[in-house]
């Protein structure tokens, strides 16, 4: 049996690489990085992070998660009909090409595929000969959907939290405010048993049988996340989102597995996955809108929107979301006043800062000639913006 598995692996790897989802996902990650850098240079006059961050995120920790999930799916024998792989791939391509990364979730893709397949079966839609027949069971698809939701939550927690981009937005009153934007795409390759091939049944394997023999295919599952946060530092709400998605994945996986004994539970699994994702999305949007705009200048302080890594500001321990109250003893209320105060002492910069808890702390650093405009701070100014 082991030799049959090894014989199937090269074909499975080839199916994953040749899947258009893989190629389109790579291009989408590159384009997303380039677009982000252009926007940052237009709005902030500098790029906070290089363009390839999105590309590294695409195949970073998600590859490890994919290997783990592949072991679970293939080892347990959750057989998925090839029609599911085709349907899911088409939806992933659609949402990736249109840039709707927020819809690149198993909680949206699998229920839509489920509804589409059942609708086509109900109306006896005739498909071309090259299209695989519609599946007879959805249990494996429901379990895989739940596992991908868990993967999505883990990726939000481990990757999206760390990779947020600052931007400026206008409040309803016309004031300039800071915001944090994250738009991520991840590739989670799944090794999935499919009907017909060299691998035969052995003992209890597969748990969910579908035919007498099986082969292997790789589904390059593409997951995405997109959110703009204006009311708080992004870490807090992204961690909440991550936990919500993980628990949604656990619930839908359990329901899908329970449908082995109670078939109608599979309907609840897909329905709850879709409704849960919509609820999380709408609730997050509601929280952001009701909480107002947090990242704006105070009457006697300047808000730090971000700190560029490796700069004097980073070495001073300044953090995004902190407020600069005084520069060299002078109160400042916007970016222009900040740099004017810095220039008064060309060799030294002492700051009075309000941290996230509203407590006062002091930090200072020596500056070299001309370095006052290279501190590495991204600040807000309702008038003319200068380079930080």
Report on the structure:
The protein has 388 residues and is an alpha+beta fold. It folds into two domains: 2-290, no CATH class; 302-379, Roll (Pdz3 Domain), CATH 2.30.42.10. It has eleven helices and nine strands. The chain has helices at 2-18, 20-43, 53-58, 61-76, 82-97, 106-122, 139-160, 234-258, 265-290, 312-315, 335-343, and strands at residues 165-170, 176-200, 213-229, 302-307, 323-327, 330-331, 348-354, 360-366, 377-379. The strands form two sheets. Strands 4, 5, 6, 7, 8 and 9 form a six-stranded antiparallel sheet that branches. A three-stranded antiparallel sheet has the order 1-2-3, sandwiched between helices. Strand 5 (323-327) and strand 6 form a beta hairpin. Helix 2 (20-43) runs parallel beside helix 5 and helix 6 crosses helix 9 (265-290). The radius of gyration is 25 Å and the shape is elongated. This is PDZ domain-containing protein. The chain crosses the membrane at residues 12-35, 56-78, 84-101, 108-125, 137-156, 264-282. Residues 292-357 form the PDZ domain. It comes from Jeotgalibacillus alimentarius. InterPro entries: PDZ, PDZ_sf.
């Amino acid at each position: 049996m082991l030799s049959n598995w090894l014989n199937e692996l090269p074909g499975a790897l080839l199916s994953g690489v040749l899947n258009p989802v893989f190629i389109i996902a790579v291009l989408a990650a590159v384009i997303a990085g380039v677009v982000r850098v252009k926007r940052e240079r237009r709005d902030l006059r500098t790029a906070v992070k290089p363009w390839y961050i999105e590309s590294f995120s695409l195949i970073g920790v998600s590859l490890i998660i994919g290997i783990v999930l592949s072991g679970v799916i293939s080892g347990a024998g959750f057989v998925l009909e090839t029609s599911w792989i085709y349907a899911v791939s088409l939806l992933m391509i659609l949402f990736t090409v249109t840039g709707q990364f927020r819809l690149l979730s198993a909680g949206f893709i699998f229920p839509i595929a489920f509804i589409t397949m059942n609708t086509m079966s109900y109306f006896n839609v005739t498909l071309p000969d090259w299209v695989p027949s519609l599946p007879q069971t959805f249990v494996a698809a429901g379990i895989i959907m739940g596992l991908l939701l868990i993967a999505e939550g883990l990726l939000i927690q481990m990757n999206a939290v760390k990779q947020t981009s600052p931007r400026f937005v206008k409040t309803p009153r016309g004031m300039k405010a800071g915001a944090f934007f994250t738009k991520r795409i991840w590739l989670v390759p799944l090794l999935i048993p499919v009907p017909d091939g060299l691998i035969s049944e052995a003992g209890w394997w597969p748990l969910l049988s579908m035919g007498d023999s099986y082969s292997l295919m790789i589904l390059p599952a593409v997951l995405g996340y997109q959110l703009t946060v204006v009311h708080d530092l992004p870490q807090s709400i992204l961690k909440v989102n991550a936990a919500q998605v993980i628990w949604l994945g656990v619930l839908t996986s359990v329901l899908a597995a329970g449908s082995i004994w109670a078939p109608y539970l599979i309907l609840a699994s897909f329905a709850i996955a879709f409704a849960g994702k919509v609820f999380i999305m709408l609730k997050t949007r509601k929280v952001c809108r009701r909480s107002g705009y947090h990242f704006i200048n105070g009457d006697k302080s300047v808000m730090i929107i971000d700190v560029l890594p490796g700069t004097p500001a980073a070495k001073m321990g300044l953090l995004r979301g902190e407020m600069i109250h005084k520069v060299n003893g002078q109160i400042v209320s916007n970016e222009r006043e900040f740099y004017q105060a810095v220039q008064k002492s060309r060799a030294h910069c002492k700051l009075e800062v309000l941290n996230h808890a509203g407590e006062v702390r002091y930090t200072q650093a020596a500056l070299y000639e001309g370095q006052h405009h290279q501190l590495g701070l991204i600040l807000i100014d309702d008038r003319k913006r200068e380079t930080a």
